[in-house]
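=== Structural record ===
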Amino acid sequence: MSLQNSKVADKFATFAAKMGAQIHLRSLRDAFATIMPLYILAGLAVLLNNTVFTWIFKGKTLLQVQYWGTLLSNATLNISGILIAAMIGYCLAKNRRFDNPISAALVSMSALITMMPNTVKLIPDGAKKAVDISAVLPYTNLGTGAMFAGVIVGLLATEAFVRISRIKKLQVHLGENVPPAVGKSFDVLIPTIIVLSCSAIISALLYNLSGMNLINLITTFIQEPLRHIGTGIWGVIILYSLGNLLWLFGIHQSVIYSSILEPLLIINITQNIAAYNAGKAIPNIINVSQVQTYGLMGGSGSTLCLLVATFLVGHSAVTKNVSKLSIAPGIFNINEPVIFGYPIVYNVALAIPFVLVPVMGLVISYVTTTLGWMNPCVIQVPWTTPIGFSAFLATAGDWRAVVIQLITFVLGVLVYIPFVMINDKVLKKENDNAAVAGDVQEA
């Protein structure tokens, strides 16, 4: 790498590192990571309800057993909007080094509730037309439909709350003789009143002047356009490829993937889970499970393909030893040993397949799903699920998805093979140059 290229790489790495450390993106990443187990549980509950249970039970017994899965969906997927608002409040407050992050979570969640309509249209059981019902919070407003609103309201409400809470004159001190929990509550009493009152005023003005609510506005004019652009096939390819490029500079791809792309992909999979649970058409081909299943075979860069290619054609003792040590974690999509041991970082010889193979997996899975050759992903499975199992579970038991994933894996190995050979030649040349230099110094 030339000196000029090295300087460009260093500047890019510095910029990417600063972007990854940006407090709002970091808080967003932390919040989604915190509630990820709930989404996985929701997916498993929906999978059992709509596949396994239907194989075992019938009629009234099936409905009774499925009630278990419905309760889990209600407790996870169908309240995901307020869950993400609360977690963003907590994570952002912690990252701001605010000493009472729990209160920030409560304020964030309550602020989101103030933005919800007091009257909604619902179809009663047995009826055909919707009627206006007041003083209810339907799952449609609490769940996936409110996720992006939860993100925006969570960030704004928490920022306002933390800033106002640090104004000394607005803090109510009861002295040292009161329990700490009581003292902390009164310290943020006035800021809580101010933030929630202001959010309620905004919501009331919006409703009285336009008849709309912030949830619908954010969903219609921000969430859906951004989600369609960011999670379209080209948007995912560009953003995910940029994330993988960061690995080449030693920066975790989560700087772009987890902070920018993954939240949108999670919204897509939650919509798919809800649609699959309700027996409706699946709305999103591209979602977080699809990207993980076909674009992260062995981790970022689909490096499990690289390990197999190394076993097949590799000659370097160093890379073969690294591959032997990395194959076990690689099966479970943990590839830091490959990234830093092979290495991928600053390795020009492997840059092309590291970016190209995941893109190939995304395109193949998108096209085959569009053509109806396999079902779309409707379950969020743990990212550590090995290939084969991941495709089968993510598509709710479609064996064709397993075949397509294995074909994609084989193609990935074939793409990596020539670059493994190139990398071996580079390593041999470096070793030869080092040996020559050593002989010169001895002479």
